[in-house]
Design a protein that fits this description.
The protein is built from 6 helices and 9 strands; from the N terminus they run βαααβββαββαβαββ. The chain is an alpha+beta fold. A hairpin with a 7-residue loop joins strand 8 and strand 9.
Length: about 200
């Protein structure tokens, strides 16, 4: 671990906390995503917009403002993960129908008419990667789902076909992280991008 990461304690995962993105923590979201908007001025709008609108939104803070508008309208957008009040993790999380590209996907078509909430992408701060944060984030997501009567969590992670996947391509999440958090494959139309689900026991 480099000197910039030396403040991270060995058992820091137990100290992580997770909360939905709101007006109150918007600035923390901006801090985490940085000047690149996580990647290429995406601001986690890729799955929510038509291709042309998404590409146009990459300039003049279009995608950033679109996300901000959702937050200010109290729409569900995702969960932030914090360590010592530092934003270190994010996952998009909202009803599947909110993600336009998912609803139009030929590979990840709906497999039933059950109401599901989707996790189309995740983002971990660079110096916190490969330390178990993704699994902790997903477990935090499951806890949040239980507390909010969300019964089915669905995701579309990748299974790398050749060794370790470069970080830039891991934004949909790695299957092994979802597996460790208790998710199970429910559709394998795509062998390296299976659909996985976690069925939440909201009675707990």
């Amino acid at each position: 671990m480099d000197s910039a990461s030396s403040f991270i304690e060995k058992d820091f995962l137990v100290e992580l906390r997770f909360e939905p993105l709101t007006k109150n923590n918007w600035n923390k979201f901006v801090e985490l995503f940085g000047v690149k908007g996580a990647c290429g001025n995406c601001w986690c709008m890729f799955y929510r917009l038509k291709k042309a609108d998404y590409q146009e939104g990459k300039i003049n803070d279009g995608n950033k403002n679109a996300m901000k508008q959702l937050v200010w309208s109290n729409q569900p957008t995702g969960l932030l993960g914090f360590y010592k009040d530092i934003p270190i993790a994010w996952c998009a999380f909202a009803p599947r129908e909110d993600f336009l590209k998912l609803e139009k996907s030929r590979i990840h078509k709906r497999i039933d008419d059950q109401p599901v909430w989707s996790v189309p992408c995740t983002f971990i701060a660079k110096k916190f990667r490969r330390q178990g944060v993704s699994v902790a984030l997903l477990k935090g997501l499951i806890k949040y789902a239980k507390e909010n009567s969300i019964k089915i969590i669905e995701a579309y992670p990748t299974i790398p076909t050749q060794g370790r996947l470069p970080d830039v391509f891991a934004w949909v999440g790695l299957y092994k992280s979802f597996e460790r958090a208790g998710f199970e494959i429910v559709d394998e139309t795509s062998k390296n991008r299976p659909m996985v689900r976690y069925y939440v026991d909201t009675s707990l």
